[in-house]
User: What shape does this take?
Amino acid sequence: MLTFLVTFIGVLLLYLLLVLGSGEPGGTLGIYFAVEEIVAGVVLSLLAAVVSRMLLGKGENDVIGKPANIVVKPAIFIVYLFPFIIAMAFANIDVAFRVITGKIRPGIVRIKPRLRTNLARTVLANSITLTPGTLTVDVDDRTGDFFIHWIFVKDTRTDQEKMREVCGGFPEWARRVAE
Amino acid sequence: MTFTEFNILIIGVAVMAVGMIVAIVRLLFGPTSPDRIVALDTVNTLVVGMMIGLGAYHEEVIFIDIAIVYAVLSFVTTLVIAKYMEGSKEEVN
Amino acid sequence: MDGVIIAMIVLIAISSFFIALGCIGLHRFPDVYTRLHAATKTTTFGMIFFSAAVILFGLWRFFEADEVNKGAYLTLIGHTLVALILLLITNPTGAHAIARAARRSGIKPEQAVIDEFEEVEP
Assistant: This one.
């Protein structure tokens, strides 16, 4: 039921973003929305939620099925955007520097972030791809190990040290956002 | 030359067009097929960006609708080509 | 000159700089993985700034337009946001798919100092 509600609200929000500005001046909802569009959006979102209820929210590692997660996780995600955007800006300056100077020392390393849910792994993999000097190559589905192409390999001794060098605080953030 | 909000947008689109030509050179001469797909992915992103810019320039929303559909379709294309390539062992030259 | 135009010039200059560097990086780096670094990160970042410029343009026109035309500019802003969100989700995922396919089809990273993928490869 909860999965149904979350899907419904998510699809409806996307639909509303797409039909923003469809109203007439002097209409019921002003110039922002037309009433017919809202009705069509509610019907379509209900349909999408019914269909996706068979696919989403299955398995014991389900994230959106827990009531406490509904409010907390999106809020944490919005907070997470700030360190992410800062890291992304540094990533681009770093790549710009490497394009201009051509100073590279590449290699593929293995890290063990120990994330359980698929959503958390997706968040971490996409974050790693967009942050400085690293690119996710492969994920071991069974153990959750990440193989990461690193454009400038630094020498590290322990696994912990290596993980901190590669992805900073992102595993903790992924755990908070999606686990 | 005076800067208005319209010709700034066109300058941005022109830079993307030049970048697209540079990426197409890599698409033609890339030694391995993953190189070509990387170039194709770049071209797709730039096409979406150009459509957004031109939509704002002509003040036609339909350009951006097409950009949305193009982004989704190009993503699926990339995934399908990548999946197809996974099985084949390639000679590296 | 208007403040909005200056802001748009700055945003589009940043985006053009990064997009141009990404396209040069496609030719400057030696193998597919490093090229992916250049192509994915810089074009995504450049597209964020370009969309920000378009959204700023739309907002400005929205406040200047008369009541009948305002809806079109709101639609422009909304659709640009949707396109940007799509790019932000699909670009790193596509890069990941390409890198994985390249590694599994047996292409080794050039000039590599370490390759821990070798140990698990069947």
